[in-house]
Amino acid sequence: MFAETTFDGVGFGLGVAVMQNPVKNKVLAQAGEYAWGGAASTFFFVDPVEKVTALFLTQLLPSSTHPIRSQLRQLVYQALVD
Fold first, then answer.
1. Rounded to an integer, what distance in angstroms lies between the CA atom of residue 75 and that of residue 65?
2. Largest alpha-carbon pair distance within the chain?
3. What is the Cα–Cα distance from 39 to 23, expressed in whole angstroms?
4. Rounded mean pLDDT of 24-33?
5. What's the per-residue H, E or C state across 29-77?
């Protein structure tokens, strides 16, 4: 697999992965978040609950070299303030 994360707890919609169970996926996210990533570590996610969109473009092959996607989510969610 080219990604550093699994697809446990994730379903698929029209062209995107949809988070159904963040606990099962073992990643900081919310149910209903949708995302997709490319082979060169590119990644985007949209959280409609928190009204957050993140886009990360890079050219790092293979994607499993560093856990960039999970770190990006963690940094974005840590930066949210009510």
1. 19
2. 37
3. 25
4. 87
5. CCCCCEEEECCCCCEEEEECCCCEEEEECCCCCCHHHCCHHHHHHHHHH
